[in-house]
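Internal ticket #5521
Category: modeling
Description: The requester needs a full-assembly model to guide mutagenesis choices. All entity lines are attached below as received. Residue total reported by intake: 719.
Assigned to: D.W.
Attached entities:
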Amino acid sequence: MMAMIQALFLRDIRLARRVGGGATLGVVFFLILITIMPFAIGPDLVLLARIGPAVLWIAALLATLLGLDRLFQSDCDDGSLDALRASDLPLEVIVLVKCLAHWMMTGLPLVVAAPAFGVMLGLEPDALWGVTVSLLAGTPALTCLGAIGAALTVSLRRGGLLLAILILPFSIPVLIFGVSAAEAASGGTIPFATPFLILCALSLMALVLAPLAGAQALRQMDE
Amino acid sequence: MLKFANPTNFLRLVALVLPWLTGLTLVLFAVGLYMTFFIAPADYQQGESVRIMYLHVPAAWLSLFIYGTMAMAALGTLVWRHPLADAAQKAAAPLGAGFTFICLVTGSLWGKPMWGTWWVWDARLTSVLILFLIYLGLMALWQTIEDMGRAARAAALLTLVGVINLPIIKFSVDWWNTLHQPASVFRMGGPTIHVSMLVPLLVMALAATFLFLTLHLMAIRNEILHRRLRRLSMLAAQTESETLS
Amino acid sequence: MQFHSLLTMGIFENLWGILLADASSHAFGPALGLSVHDLGVMRGARSVLAGLSFDVTAGEALIVAGPNGAGKSTLLRSLAGLLPLCAGHITLSGVGAPDEDGDIDHARYVHYLGHKDGLKSALTAAENLNFWAAMMARDSSLGLFANKALTSTEALARMGLAHALDVPVAYLSAGQTRRVALARLLVAHRPIWLLDEPTTALDTASQLRVRDIMCAHLGEGGIVIAATHTELGLSSARELNLRPLTSGASS
């Protein structure tokens, strides 16, 4: 069982590095989103520093969701999914492993890049730290929720937009507590731990919900 | 129960029930609107504009009730794979979006004299707005997936995921709201509402519920007939191509 | 009503399974066999297969024939456990032990090769096959066939592609890609092969290779069920002719 999980995980990582542009594409998109913000808002560093955590979180949300539509679709298109379903791994585990691999190649690079981009928005060290830790705790939830959308839209040729429409409302709680935790880290009326622990809880719940709902969706959609 | 689940029996039942249901809805609305405008008192603070409540609150109630109905139908789709459940789901989504929209618009109209602006990011309004977005997403899903059965199963799954997520969304929006603006906006005191207001409100809520039931049954009927028509034309195309070849 | 009868049927089936499991643990165990009883499958509101019954036993090949739209692919997909059955049941005997419900999950004992190859074009032939070998590998305690798998290199050599080991699949021709996909059958051993048009895009020499590996599989006591329009050259194959169902669904 562990050997299968490892094989699947490594295959997805390898594929992401060879075809998806790997970790760089998501980070570049993230950077572009950060770059266009001052053009819309103005180069006022004080203002940017104040809304910086929110900007970083929205950029991370979009960068995560927009890259997810091919998560299951490529396996469905080339027939891999049919064969995967005949393996001894339950489809729920397959979904979970694919989410994990996807997060390693998109979510984690965003977390790593966040401090650098935060500096560009004039964030203080406290806020930088808060944003990074909250992204680390929250992006798995975004990937998992997005995976449900990816499974539901697996049969659609251009499912990316629909995926965002379906899943963005469900990701609002993650956004709320992610930004709250990031802002609480740089001083505020509430302690950092309160929103942060709820954020962790949301991530854990998504980690349970996504494999169940995603696997069910794949079974239903692949008929 | 299973006897009525057969679409043909269901259509017969709908034909039987629909006139009565329509009549009941009209009577309830007549009574409810009369009470709203002539019996219910104007609020000493809010004046006549409080009468919007008699439309706003039933719409808010239905926006959730319809989601519940849709979730039940979703179970029917996933567990029993019944075509009637598919039709019930599909018919409920636009109605839910419609009532939620009415709730938002009346809330906004009510808010203008109360808060001085058309829109505030009040916890209640914001949650309803997100519910509206979820309804729109479900409708988009129905429109995008061509295969009916597949669309029904996708919508069913998303609806059920929503059942888990809606309380979380409500909770987080409340939390967010108290964080960003201390409670200063108008809150409708639940049990303190006076009987002279409560009775019209209940009648209007009942009227709106029956309106939904009537519209829902009509929409399910249309959906079933629509599918039959499609199947017949598909069959016709099939036999035609067979005679040609 | 149908739902109820299915439920009760399921219960009886499980009882039988438990009884059989007890019986077989004392004997040498029954021979490999796949038996399909009164199978019915719907696609959307349309009934594609109905009332289909057949048995296949060890060493036997079944060729599924019929015009387009007769349900050949649907049959193979439902045998692979990818489609839900709306009627009937599929029983597998002679492999492993039934689980506590008395059922054997037949999907775990099949190789399903559909129209699509199940290969990643960005990975090399060897990487693809190694992945499938790892994913489809069976615990040796479970089946009779656990230790008969070939390595990726051996499997590719059997398909005449030894030179393509480290070539990304994207650079291979359609026929070569199909042969890599067929090599998947060899890197992990499963007793039942479900092949949908296995010889698409293959030249004559490759078709002979496919016949060879199928014959070897049958010789080891495996089962091959293939849907095809072309002659596969299997001497002992039985044929199952499917006809399209023309009547619409009753509702």
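Resolution: model delivered.
Comment from assignee: Chain A touches chain C at residues 3-4, 6-8, 11, 14-15, 18-19, 77-80, 82-89, 222-223 (CB under 8 Å).
Ticket closed.
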